[in-house]
TrEMBL record:
<dbReference type="InterPro" id="IPR031052">
    <property type="entry name" value="FHY3/FAR1"/>
</dbReference>
<keyword id="KW-0862">Zinc</keyword>
<dbReference type="InterPro" id="IPR004330">
    <property type="entry name" value="FAR1_DNA_bnd_dom"/>
</dbReference>
<dbReference type="Pfam" id="PF04434">
    <property type="entry name" value="SWIM"/>
</dbReference>
<dbReference type="InterPro" id="IPR018289">
    <property type="entry name" value="MULE_transposase_dom"/>
</dbReference>
<dbReference type="InterPro" id="IPR007527">
    <property type="entry name" value="Znf_SWIM"/>
</dbReference>
<dbReference type="InterPro" id="IPR006564">
    <property type="entry name" value="Znf_PMZ"/>
</dbReference>
<keyword id="KW-0539">Nucleus</keyword>
<protein>
    <recommendedName>
        <fullName>Protein FAR1-RELATED SEQUENCE</fullName>
    </recommendedName>
</protein>
<feature type="domain" description="SWIM-type">
    <location>
        <begin position="669"/>
        <end position="707"/>
    </location>
</feature>
<dbReference type="GO" id="GO:0006355">
    <property type="term" value="P:regulation of DNA-templated transcription"/>
</dbReference>
<dbReference type="Pfam" id="PF03101">
    <property type="entry name" value="FAR1"/>
</dbReference>
<comment type="similarity">
    <text>Belongs to the FHY3/FAR1 family.</text>
</comment>
<keyword id="KW-0479">Metal-binding</keyword>
<dbReference type="GO" id="GO:0005634">
    <property type="term" value="C:nucleus"/>
</dbReference>
<comment type="function">
    <text>Putative transcription activator involved in regulating light control of development.</text>
</comment>
<dbReference type="GO" id="GO:0008270">
    <property type="term" value="F:zinc ion binding"/>
</dbReference>
Amino acid sequence: MENASSEDNLLRDNLVDLNDDYIENQMAFDVNDELVNMNNNSSKENLENSEPFVGMEFESEEAAKVFYMAYASRVGFSVRISKSRCSRNDESIIMRRFVCSKEGFHHKKQNDTGKRKRKRAILREGCHAMIEVSQKYYGRWVVIKLIKEHNHAVAAPSIVRYIVPEEYAQLEPFAGMEFPSHEAAQTFYYAYASRMGFDVRIRLSRRSPKDSTFVMRRFVCTREGATPCEENENKRKRNRGVPREGCQAMFEIVKKDHDKWVVSKLFLAHTHELVNVPNKVHYIQSNSEVVVLAKTSVLRDNSIAPTLNPLPADLGKNFENQATNDQEIIERCRNAFGLDDTQKLLGYFKRLNAENPTFSYAFQVDKNDCLTHAFWADAKARTSYYYFGDAVTLETSFVENEDLLPLVMFSGVNHHLQCQMFGCALLIDFTEASYIWLFQNWIAAMGSHHPTSLTTVYNEAMGSAIAKVFPQTHHLYFTADILKRSKDILADIYFRCASFERELYACVNEPKTIEMFELSWRKVLDKYDLDDNLWLQSLYRIRQKWVPVYFKDVFTAEFSASQRPESLRNIFEKYFNRRTALPVFISLFEHLMAGWSEREAVEDLASSFTRPVLRTPSNMMKQVSEIYTTTVFNILEEEFIASLGYYISGLDNDGLIAVYSVTKEDTEATCRVRYDTSGNIAKCSCCKFESCGILCRHILRVFLALDVRTIADVYILKRWTKEAKNGFVLDECLRYSELHRDALRYAREGSTSGEVFTFAQQTLQVAFAEVVQMKQESFSQCTMR
């Protein structure tokens, strides 16, 4: 009993019913995407139709939940989350228990006030059916407990919910169109009706005399037919929501051989005006079926496409003549978030701040109190930035895809090379002032510690704002993004000259020195007669920000400088599109961040309690295997093994400083390593260590030749070690933020007049001197101890 009670103390109740509105409003978007993917993959389809068993493995907690929900729907019971266990390391979820909704018993409450009791949708009957999944150290979720028997009757659910699949988003119906099921056809026509602006009802159905299954279904406009006249005038008339007008629009499907459903009759014309864009979620109910037609859009006007730096198609020819009316676009983007969206998001932020004061957020609204900008960063984002905020990328995927939510994310990589979030924002316009507002609020939340490098897409307004807010930070552009834009802008050259793309890529990425790039660039311009191309001229002026050879000695964590994080872009495109309702977005974003935290915790655990298998007997590799995380060690070990294929030759040696040429066999690629014998310090011309903090194969080859058996501490960056997250106290960041706010308030009040300013300045100088003295005394006491 003690063990059971102690276990329960570690568990957290999560009494969430997964069969009611929670699924529909919070999880429908994600779950149905998963189920659609399962239907498109034979192995996942087999998984969906299989029976659960102890030891069954899943890629994620979400996959386990989707599977059990599908199993419950097939068997005929509903599910809720009963218990969760959090990691003591970072409070991430490491165990989930899903139970039948009739598990347990309801608590009896005293009802002395005579209040009417709330009717419960599901009665608890003490059912023991459950499944419990736990995350293992290698990242997968495993079924550790399972009870399949129920103490009550189970039956197929009477309510079916449909979410519009993406493949039906823009299709037009036509006679002979085929569907795998009548549900798929029904969902398609409802999606089409929602897009066109009319509602649908089921008019006729025909069943098979053999097994009573459907063999024909006819869907009509809700205004089909005529409103019947009431014979009894005294009888209370039924209030019809939609008047009948004799509309003949209809969509009929019949079941053919091989279980295919074919459109047999179709009439598209309507006798009434259609509403172009639905402004709410439509529900059609018929014969116990509830069908969701469309989800509420976060952005009210779907014609608005927020882009950060629109480029005309003929920029390569008329770059100097591009004229985009930014003010007009900004005005169109105003009020894209309604008042309800603003209040919901603000309430969400206030709740998080009340739960944890380290949660930071900033709002900007217009004169109608509608959201224009919002920024937020939780405690995890702020601590992650403290550890790994030296190299930051600004993800703005909606620049290239106007259907995406205008979400901006500051991100980087941790010591396992996993993606980390350092703060997010929703932006409506893309002016320099908006970016300055964003950067100022972000860096204030991060304790005013500026990053070493900040990599973004190419955008002039953003670049100007970064230069003003982060004057000491190296601002870089994604090389791949520049090359992709070049392919669009110089499409005629790419089409005419098949070799141009390959040669431009080699010109940008292969040169090892600036002189080699300049020579290669000139060669490309001359070969293809592009001296007068305005786009290439503009790129050449900013070459220090996007050509790798110019910033190879800038720390970028070997992640953000050369290519964009494709996995992060895929996440944006899958979940954060403009059709995503704000509550759904919040739920999905929380789930995504929780998943990142869980994966980081798993890797932390694996690195702490496991040691990599050494592939060489090197003492140097043995040394760093105890220090680096497994992921980083594997990268260094690959460099060490690759170094064995190089040979060195001395170029110069004055006794203290030696210069070596390191060349790979059978190639002409050569790097120079400058070695200081007094401190065992080496510097390579490839600058790999400067850019990512990991020693290159060239230096390792010199160390091997000179019998250097250990790596000096100067080459071991803490951010790549197992101890990367030791020694930081979040209170320091919180204290700084609070003092920063107080200082701003002090400055505003102290500058109202000359007399007040003089007094405020004198008082501040006295207070500052006392703070410095107290800090010195505190330091002296700590030293004496």
